[in-house]
Structure formats: C-alpha cells, structure tokens
Amino acid sequence: MDIAQNLTERLNPGEALVLVTETDLRKDGTFGRRWFAVTDRRLLTFADGPEGDGWEVEVALADVKELRTVHHVGRMGLEAQKADSRVEVLSCTNGLATRFAKIAHAVTKHCKEEWPLEISLEDEERRVCEHCGRPLPEAGSFCPVCLKKGKVLARLWTYMRPHRRKLLVVSSLVLSGAVVNLAPPYLVKTLVDDVLLGDSGRRLLLLVLALAGSYLAGTLIGIVRGRMSARLASRMMHEVRFDFYQAVQGLSLRRYDKTQTGTLISRLTGDTQMLNFVFADVGAFILPALVQIVGICVVLFFLDWRLALWVLIPAPLLVLVTLLTFRRLRRSYHRLWQRRAKMTARANDAISGIRVIKAFSQEPKEIDRFSVRSGDVADATAFAEGMFSTVFPTLNFLTMFGTFFVWYFGGIAVMEHRVSLGALMAFVAYLTMFYGPLQMLTRFGDFLNRAFTAAQRLFEVTDADQEIYDDPDAQPLASMDGAFEFEGVHFGYVKDRPVLKGVDAKVEAGEMVGLVGRSGVGKTTMTNLICRFYDVDEGAIKVDGVDVRKVRLRDLRRHIGIVPQESYLFDGTVADNIGFAKPDATRADVMRVAKAANAHGFIMRLPGGYDTRVGEKGARLSGGEKQRIAIARAILHDPKILILDEATSSVDTETEELIQRALASLVEGRTTFAIAHRLSTLRHAQRLLVVDDGKVAEFGTHDELIEKKGIYSKLVEIQSQLSAIKAVDG
Amino acid sequence: MNEPLTGTPQVIQEPEYDEPLDPKRLRLFRDATNQLRLTVEDDRCYLDVKVAYAFPISDPDHHIGLLDGRDRCIGMLERLDGLDDASRQLAEGALRQRYFVPEVRRIHSLKEEFGAVYFDVDTDRGRREFVVKGLRDSLEDLGDGRLLIADADGTRYHIPDWLGLDARSRRLLENFI
Q1: Contact by Cβ (8 Å): A630, A658
Q2: Domain tally, chain A
Q3: C-alpha separations of A260 from A95, A254, A574, A616, A617 in Å
Q4: SS3 state at A467
C-alpha cells in the first residue's frame, strides 16, 4: 500500500510498522480521512496530506499503560493512558468503533501483559459496498443498490422454475391470443375495401364469420389463459409467503430486537402483495400488452408506412410524459402510505398499552395525538388523489392525439386515393389497441393496494367497542381520602367461572395493605376492579364510602395510581414516559420524581439523558430500570390510592435496594394495595390480606397472622428458608 | 428478617447533591494531567468529571449534569451562565466533546433502495455520506421543523429547520416526512 510505504520511510531507523489504518474524523472534528499507525515503538496519528506535516499525535508505547475506547455520544475516542496524563489519540464515528476497540485491546494487552503486538483487521466486516462504494446499511451484509436486479430475478425464477411447463403453456397462449387479437381490424379492412366497396360481395358472410370466429377464439384463449395464470400466480404466491414466514420464524432473537414487529408484518402483507402483482399481472396483462404492441407496430407499417409513422409519433412523447408524472404520483402515494403506517403504529401502540392509558386517564390526549396523525394522512391523501385526478384525464387526452393524426393524415391519404378506406378504419381500430396497453405498461409500478391495506387496519380500530362507560349522573370527585372497601364482591372475567366469590375487606386511608396468595387466586383481579377496568358482577366497591360506579371515571382514575408487574414503556422519551400522567409537568418535576425513584442516576448515564427514546423502538432498559421509571411515573401522578403489582423478576441486590427505597418514598402517605411476592415489601405493610379460593382467608397485622399459624405464617416460613439459600447472589 | 448482609455494596444516592448546585460555589479546572476536576467549595473535590445534558434534544440550555469518574451523577446545574468564565468555557468544551451531532446544512442526494435511504449531505463538519435503515423509524420529527436522523451506525444528524433549507434539499426530504 502506498501509504504504508511512505510511512515506513518516515519512521525511525529500526522501527517496524505493525499496522496502519484510517479513521473518519480529523483533528478538528470534521469528517475526513486521518491516518493512524502502530509501530513496535509508537502510536502515531497524522493527517491525510502532503508529506512533511509531521505527526499530529505521537505516543511512545513504553509510556502507555492502557489504550482504551471512550464512548461519547455519536462518536468514539481512542485514549492512551500514560502514567500521569491522558492523551486522545484519535476520534472516529460509531461505525469504526469495532475496529478501534480491537486495536485498543491488542495494544493494551501488549503494554500491560507484554503480549506480542499483533493486530489483524482482515476479518473486519465490510462497511462499504465493493461495487458502488456506498455505505452498507448493515455491516457485512449485502448492498441493496447493487443487489436489486439480478439476484431478485434469480430468486423469482426459483419459484417459477417448478412450474415452467405450465408457464410455457401460458406464454404460448399469450402469444397466440395476441396474434388472434390482431386479426379483426384486418378482417374489417378486407370487409370494407373488398366486399362493401369492391366487388367480392359473395365473401361477406365468410368474412363476418371469420370475424366472429376470431373474436371467439380470442375470448376463449383469454379465458383459459386468465384462469391458468391466476391459479399459477396464487400457487407461487403461497409458496413465497410460506417460505417467508418460515424464515421469519427462524430468525434469531437478535434480529427480532433489531426489527420491529410492524416491519415484519408489513413485509408479510405489503411486500408479498407487490410480488403478487408481479406474478399475477405479468401473465395476465403485461406480457399480452407487450406482444400486442409489437405486433401492431408491425401490421401498421405493413399497411402503410407513412401513415404508421404519423400515428406513432406521439407514442414516445406519451411514454416520456407518463414516466415523469408517474414518478411524482408514485412518490405522493408512497408518502401517503408512510403516514398511514405512522398513524396505525400510533393506534397500535395505544391499544397495546390501553391499561396504562386508562389508568392515567390519558384518553383525550391519545385521541388528540391520533387526530394529528390522521390529519396528516388526510392532507397527504388530498394531495395524492388530487394529482391522480389531474394526471389521468390529461394523459387520456394526449392519447387521443394519435387518433387526430390518423383522421387528418389518413383522411387526406384516402381522398388522394393513396390509402383505402378500409385501411384507414383498420388504423383507427389498431390505434385503440395500441395506446391502451402502452399506457398500462408505463404505469407498471403503480401500487394503490398498499393504501387500502392500511385503511383496513384503521377501521378495525374505530369499530372496536368501548367496554366501560360513565353513568350519566356520575358524581365528580374532587379529592379523596383514600379509604376503600370491598362489599360482597363477586366477579369473573368469563360469566360462569368466578374468580372472586364474595370478597369483604375494608382498608383505611393511608394504610398499606399487602395482598398475598397463590398465583391466579385473584389478587390482580381485585386491583383491576378497584381501577374499574371491569365492573363487579355482584356486590360493590366503595371509595370513601361511595360506589365507584357512581363516580366519574376520569376522576376516579386520577386518584388511583398503578405500578404494574410488567412496566410498559411507550414509544417516547424517558421524560415522556415519566411525565405520562401529567403532560404539563415541568422538566424539574420529572427530575424530582426520577431522583425519588432512584432513576436519575442511570438516566444521566444514558447518552440521550431524559431525551433518550425508550419503548419498542428505543433503548433497551433492564427490568430494574423500567420498574424505577414506572415508580417515578406513579410518584408524579401523585395518587391517593396506589396499586403495586410487584414484579417477580429477580434483580441484583443493589438494584433491589434501589427499588425498595424508591418504593418506600412512593408509598408514603398513600393508601397502598400491594401485591407482594417479596417479604421485604410486606415488611412495610400495616396489614396483610390473604386471599384463598376467591375469598378473604386472613386479614390482619403480621404478628396477628403469625400467631394464627395459618396460610400466611406458612408462607413466611417458606420464604425465609428460600431467602437464606438465596442470600449469596449478586 | 431480610436485613442487608454485611459486605453488600453501598448504594450511593444519585444525584449526590439533591438540590440544584449553586454555580457560584463551583469551579471547573484542568489539573496537571489534563483531567477535568470539579471543586464544590468547602465541600468536595471530584476527579475526572464529565458534563452531560439532562435533555440534550429538547432543552440543552438547562439542566446540565455533572458526573464523576464512574459516571455517577454528582449534581445538576440549572444553567451554565452562573459559572465563572473559565469554568463555563471548560464545561462548554466538555459538552462539545461528548456530544457529536453533525448539523445538516444541505442535502445533495437522497435515494431509497429496498428500504435503506442513502444520504449525501453537507454538514457543519464537512461532507458526509451515510445510510439510514428504515427511515420512518430513524427519523424523529421534533416539531418546528426540527429533525433528528439516526444512521445505521447510530450517529445522529440534526436538521434545525428543514423548511429553511434550500429548495432542492427541501424537495428531497418532502417525500419522507
């Protein structure tokens, strides 16, 4: 390599070059090439420029204790740690991070443990396409630009190959059909010229029969071909879908992390639909159109080449105009499709997290958000459809020009007896058979289907029924003490399978009650009922003495907070998620509650801070981190009644402590109903409620229940034993 | 029951200073080894300090965090203004070091192939070509014409006002928003 040679000359005598590579950020932080070299004695960084510029950074290996990578936001630095100082050796964008991490590792190993200095970048993943030089969307993967035509066609062929005999039949039908279709105008010409105007009157019947026959033949061929190609296409489509789905199932989990569910689904539906078009319509429309066009050109020239020329002049012009306008039209439909998808994603998100939306009474805001997206879709639709309405009639008009030319120049030719009347009529007939398919061919690639699919998904949302609604004379509830009560509550999600079979319990304001019991016994159900996600079948739930059904739902939910078992984080920033309950919360508020929930620390460590996107598309947070965000969210909500559905996932002791402390600050001063799995949580509870077989089995303080030696005391015993075993973990 | 075992790692409260820090009591400086140090007057001195935005995208002018050598949050500053000139300059420099978000000034070309969008742009750090996988998901519309685009490597590019770009750039972007 040229640079290596030049470099070797610039080194000290006896110094050997180990590696030279480039980075993509210059000394001043601008994009550009900069060189980095490792010799057996030094680390050198220098600019990409004329010789004699010297080294920008020069560090003796002997001085280096460690070479490490420093991750900033959007770039990475390579830093050499010397005995008493640090030097930033170079900087690179994220894409080159792996390369320099490798170098850092090797150099550090050499400096610390005297490993031989061997660095090979050979098996580094390609970041740039070999053919076109464009950056690859996925390192080491294929280049979409270069790959498009050849490989895809080859892929399509693998699906067509098993059916090639049938394809051959369809193709020959297409050919014969096209030829047969060319006959009628010619027959008419003969009919007009020779029979009507001429003297072969006897042949009238014959010609008409021939005409009828050719139409019949054309129709029959068309039907058979249509049915065959439809069946063939759907067969091939099925095979494509099957393979795709199988592949999707076989994807490694890491790919699932990278790809969103929505993308996979839109592939399954949208992209396969595009292929369907290719398979089905190629056979049914495109091929016949092509053959027809070519055939007609031939016949026209055969009839009268001068006239043919006149007639075909508008053709290239029409093609050009169509291509230009359709590119714009296609783009506007693409934009419409994208906006539709955004809107649907919004709805999808909202429906998945509907519990959280309802618990924090955020429906109006959700509706607003959706309405904005819907508005965008409306704008894009108006634009696209408007364009459509302009383009098509205009193109049709342009098509007519061919006909005008024929009548004019053809008319002249007939009057000068250069061309027969029959020929002229044939010309006109052929023209319609020509420009129609021509236009369709140029429109090949118009995908309106996608817009309809998205619309379908939209209607599913609007048609979904609301489950619970407000009583017309529901009372508003301005403030709440927080006492609540179950009075003879019976409930089942499914009517003949009751979960709660007569629950009676009274909780004082500000009290913390721990809910205990086996899995599935009805603990979460009880919390669902307090939030009024469902209405009881029998009995009542009262808050401050008032039946929850008599209170405005919005108000009720404003005073009830929930920290669920699985904290669902919305597609949004950390700040958005924390501030979910109070959209007008200031940033200071958000930080305040984050601090109380022991989340501020890890949030500040995130590169985007509070603006980091989380949720489906965003950063992956650990269970403990998600929990704390959910706790911060609940603190901000500041409810009078708090429902805590404890996560069963185990976290390390340190995180556990953080969560416990966060919960302690959350629970203070509120009536808390905690579904607890850990005795450490229950330790803080004033009273414990044991649920068994759909009823309240035991309800009292910890000491009272231990004395009873009932279910609770047994649970405590088991848990203590488990904790003793578990004690030594992280 | 369930007392923490001895030897369990101490849990530090973050941020260490709960109330916002008083900039008058702070001093940032570089020591002999070129590390960034922070002294909180009469109280403590921290080595190897980092400066981070709490809201880098929505509010970079307020709520600046100071982190210690182990990335633990020391405290928050409402604004940088109250600091003495030298400290403020160091803080601003540290922020510039930490956040690398090129600002797009002009778009030369924008092509979509197979779901990947290829950009060729001029930024405040020079010309750059990059590719974005799934533009719909990687483009954030922050309102008021502000856009944030994340490329396939995770580097973010900022467009402060896409409507204010030159006509050609605007036209190219229009199709994707």
Answers
A1: no
A2: 5
A3: 22, 11, 19, 7, 7
A4: coil
Which ipTM was obtained for this model? 0.81
Residues A332, A349: one domain?
yes
Token output for A644 = 């805590």
CATH assignment at residue A29? 2.30.29.30
Q: How far apart are CA A391 and CA B34, in angstroms?
A: 67
Structural domain containing residue A75 = 2-113
* Cβ separation B15–A93 shorter than 8 A: no
Query: Considering the domain boundaries, does residue A362 fall inside one?
Result: yes
Residue A182 lies in a domain: yes
Q: How far apart are CA A706 and CA A700, in angstroms?
A: 10
pLDDT digits (tens, 9 = 90+) for A40-88: 899 999 988 765 568 889 999 999 999 988 888 888 899 999 988 889 9
Task: Tell me the pLDDT band of A618, cut-offs 50, 70 and 90.
Answer: low
Closest residue, chain B, to A133 (C-alpha): B129
- For residue A245, the domain's CATH number is 1.20.1560.10
3-state secondary structure of B146: strand
**Residues A687 and A555 occupy one common structural domain:** yes
Phi, psi of A505 (to 5 degrees): -165, 145
Q: Are A236 and A272 in contact (CB under 8 A)?
A: no
How far, CA to CA in Å, does B151 sit from each of A115, A331, A665, B140, B171?
37, 22, 41, 12, 20
- Picking from A303, A324, A339, the residue at the C-terminal end of a domain is A303
Asked if A218 contacts A224 with a C-beta cutoff of 8 angstroms, the reply is no
Kindly state whether residues A441 and A352 are assigned to the same domain.
Answer: yes
Which of B10, B11, B146 best probes binding to A when mutated, by most A CB atoms within 10 angstroms? B11
Subunit contact B125:A604, Cβ cutoff 8 A: no
Residue A277's pLDDT is what? 63
pLDDT of residue A455: 30
Same domain, residue pair A536 and A389: no
CA distance A610 to chain B (A): 5
What b/e string do you get for A84-118 counting C-beta neighbours within 10 Å, with b at 16 or more?
Answer: eebbebbbbbbbbbbbbebbbebbbbbbeeeeebe
Q: Give the amino acid at B89.
A: Q
Q: What tens digit of pLDDT does each residue of A176-205 get?
A: 888 888 888 888 888 888 777 766 667 788
DSSP per residue over A711-727, as a string? HHHHHHHHHHHHHHHHT
H helices of A304-353, in order, are: 305-312, 314-352
What is the per-residue burial (b if ≥16 Cβ within 10 Å, else e) of A48-57? eeeeeeeebb
Q: Which two tokens stand for residue A664?
A: 């302690």
- Are residues A321 and A251 both part of a single domain? no
3-state helix, strand, coil in chain A (%, to 5): 60, 15, 25
Q: Do B113 and A145 touch (CB under 8 A)?
A: yes
pTM of the model: 0.59
Average pLDDT over residues A666-685: 81
What DSSP character marks residue B103?
B
| Domain end call among A420, A439, A462 | A462
A127 in any annotated domain: no
Q: How far is CA A662 from the centre of its chain?
A: 34
Q: Decide if pLDDT at A549 tops 60.
A: yes
Residues of chain B contacting A95 with CB distance shorter than 8 Å: 152-153, 155
Same-domain check for residues A217 and A243: yes
The answer for B 115-154 residues in CB contact with A (under 8 A) is 115-116, 118, 123, 125-134, 136-137, 140, 152-154
Q: Identify from B63, B95, B103, B131 which residue to disrupt to test chain A contact, counting A C-beta atoms within 10 A and taking the largest count.
A: B131
Q: Report chain A residues whose CB lies below 8 A from the CB of B126.
A: 30-32
Q: Is residue A142 part of a domain?
A: no
Q: Give yes or no: residues A299 and A315 share one domain.
A: no
From the list A448, A431, A449, A455, the residue with the least C-alpha distance to A392 is A448
CATH number of the domain that residue A595 is part of: 3.40.50.300
